[in-house]
Structures
1.
Amino acid sequence: MSSFEKYHSTHALDDTQPLVCAIEGSQNMQGHTEYIIKVHRRPAPELSWHVTRRYSDFAILNATLQGCGIDLALPPKKVFGNLDREFVAERQQGLQSYLNALLGSLMLSSSLLVRQFLDPETYSTSLLQDMAHVSMFLRSEPKWEMQEAQPDIGWRIRKQYFLVKHLERPKVRYLLSRASLGPDHCLSPKDLDAVMRLLPSMQHPYIYPVEFSMGNEHGGLVIRTYVSDPGTLRDRICKARPRRTYLKKYLKPKVHNTLPLNEVKLAGRQILEGLKFLQEKGLPYGHLHASNVIVDNGCYRLTDVENHLLGLPCYYRPYITQLRKVSTVEAIDVYCFGHLLYEMVFGYSLNSTTCDNFPCSPQIQAILASILSSEACRTGLPSVSSLLSQPLFSDVPINYTEKAQFKLSSRLKEALQAAKEAMESRLKEEKKLVYALLVYSSIKHHLASKTDLFLTIRCRSRSAYLKQPPSTCLKRRQ
């Protein structure tokens, strides 16, 4: 077995896989009602389980969400008569609608809060063991010192953040991020650590620099200078404070700030230049979204370039698995750029796979349609180079003060290419499962409609027959 096959053979759990749930019934347990929920992790049909929840469990979850500024329609509380059969059935319908609303939001459905509610065995508090890995690193690197944890400032469940300081530069604040290996991890520990330790040598005006990075058989660790004002591009759009939790910042922001045209053009050009550089250097990205762009002194700089090396799934993966033409890392970069451009122009995220209505200037409208329209996603997306040639971005002047550079050995390039192909292969296989599930659901719905129609016709025919006079019925029987 080759080293590549060895590290590709075992997959970690993909936290971006959508959860679908249905309340199948209820049971009376010691004077209270428990609702039996069947949860299914798509697209694999065998990944399903049951979890029981009381109404009080829903109320606790809802109170926590309200603390994040999220107000969903939870059925009201009832003190007397809450075990009545009709009331329980009505409340079950309301709770099902509540769950549908939770899972209908990409940002909310991928949160640890919702995952723990529906899959408590998988998403337990043991995930906080990442602290032990960080502590081990700090013991091996005494020049770095822990200051404080930054819980839940990112969307990834298995990624933790900490403020640290360098003892030789105590006035500079740094942000340490540590992530476990993801389901697309294929690099050997040796190759992973080699590429990770090369990241600080990367120089590009539109890629945020790395101070220190390393990798091993458990995951990867990266330290960057901490930028708190204005923070990320999504912080800029939502006018959010970077250190607040992810859900409080972005799920229902008080302000939706659209960017002026000149800023959209500048940000778009610089982000595309960063993507082009990474593609040319053989370092796949595939993780573009507004929270992965740092706004730094008027520059828009890509961050988290280590995500692909660690095998982490893309934020928009639940959408991408539904699009048969978006199957390469390069196409993923372009598709994610479309979502980012949409967010800059309209001030909020596009919460759907495709979009065919763009009420904006014709120039921006044409680019959005070429990426996000149902027709574009069915026939194919433009490349990063072709987007850079569009007048919207090509007119923006670019002045490099330093030479962009990043060097990889031939062996590491081959390892990265093999890992990229493996990631794309898993994506294609998952697309097949999603498509098969879609076909199955369509056939099931069609058959159910046919059955309902047959039963309706039969009932109406029987009702009409019974309403006829006895003499008519007698003649028919004869």
Note: The two ends are 80 Å apart (CA to CA).
2.
Amino acid sequence: MSEGKPQDEQHDQHVLTVEGQAPEEKDSCGPILGCLLTFFSVFFIVITFPFSIWFCIKMVQEYQRAVIFRLGRLKRGGAVGPGLFLIIPCIDNVQVVDLRTVSFDVPPQEILTKDSVTVAVDAVV
């Protein structure tokens, strides 16, 4: 034990340093396997270039965004779009999100108020 600091303060400092660090998620395969898969996929795309480019280019409309997951994790940069973007077909998974407002028409209904008056109500949600 060091002099000048009680044991409780030393323990609190140790807990703070452990809790202050970002939690590291450890994959069973590691990032090396992800880089290796990405390299081989890009290599395969380059070899079969004229045919594979049709599978690599995706397009989303003005009112849509594409969220790209690479090996099951969100790709750096967030959602992409509108327009054209490139993906790696074997590695990336694309989810298209529609940003338009959706409205539903509620059919007219007759309701009875507290003072026994019938009122027809129509709504759009």
Note: The longest strand covers residues 105-112.
3.
Amino acid sequence: MAEENLLVDLSDDMSSIEISSSTISPTNQQVSPISSEDRILAEALQKEEEQEFKNWPPQEGGGEGPPASSQQQQQQQAWADPAEEFADIAKYGIIEVSGSDVNGRPVIVVSACKLPPIKQLDHKRFLSYLKQTLDRYVEADYSLIYLHHGLSSSNKPSFSWLVDAYKEFDRKYKKNLKTLYIIHPSMFIKILFNLFKPIISAKFGRKVKYCNYLTDISDTISLQQISIPDVVRKHDEEMMKKVKVKTDEANEQPIAIPSTQQFGVSLEFLEENNPGLTIPRVVKESVEYLKENGLEVEGIFRRSPSTIELKNIQEIYNSGNPAVFHDPHLAASTLKAFLRRLPEPLMTYEVYQYVLNIAHVDEETRVRVVASVLQKLPERNSKILKYIMDFLTIVVQHASSNRMTSSNLAVVFGPNLIWSQDQEASLFAMGHINTFIRIMIDNHEQLFAIDSEC
């Protein structure tokens, strides 16, 4: 009986997507109907996927999705305010902002396993909640991670809702999305993507990247910073056990780092191999270029160059050769990437909890508390942070042209200046980090010495 209901559900969904495709195709051309072979294959794959999740959810409580801890619920609800009407959706933690990738772009994580049963979620309101959450970040380039494991017939949205969602998210959401990582994709979801091709632009399609394992994204996104549900981690571990990894002994040997290396090395390393330079070369040269060419550029620090351009400029720096910028966005992204690739954040792991505690400090005493936190930084870190803050203050002075207020800069630089050593990033944490950075920018003269190198 359950299998019959599943096939009926799938058939209804397939019908809805077939009708919707013909009506919203950009060219308004007739879309070929789904063949019986495709329908049968999709149904079989869905049955196979349902079998994997037949015991879902693993927690007690029957019809409810994975419960968040009381602390997580408090954090998510705190961030959901002032949009209190969405607190009932925010409590599930379906969508999280998890720091930045190595290029300094915000990372947004959507977990299918956290979707509650269909009858417990108003999907129209859920779509509004998604848009409100994304609106804080989509004005800049961002990456999206979709954790597919845990989607079942009990909690999956209908195909017609997916079509409506794609139509609802206008150009700004799609344009600034750099990569959509689909983790643990099933054959079924790949077929669905093919079915959606008539309504998805080719450019957007190229942004989709299938990743069979979490490690597939580890080169660009720190897995420690991502909010990954335990059930997804366990599934990934089971998947990895099935893979036979051949280890080359030569690869186990530590790779010697050239003395010219600039990205991904500690500040101590840079100081030792670049005597006399108190400000790292990448920071100095990118800031100097931006002062001359980027202050009037609208959305500076919010746009990214191509991945190839960013990779090339990093290779030039790491080889010790002179680097030349021809684009303000490339210089801005290079600065963010340098900060994000530091083995330890510029503001250090030590002060992370102090930064988060800013939320519990009264407004009138926050500046004094921030000053005391900054005193905990090593001298070399303080000098570099001051140099960057000096520059960001100049950027804010041109906000009428570049639209980068202190709040906007805090959102961009917060996850690149500080992150936790062992805690996942969250909307709750990001809000407090951004507040701390904004206070530093707004009270620059009080917090930093009057004399400036910028």
Note: Residues 279 and 384 are 6 Å apart (CA to CA).
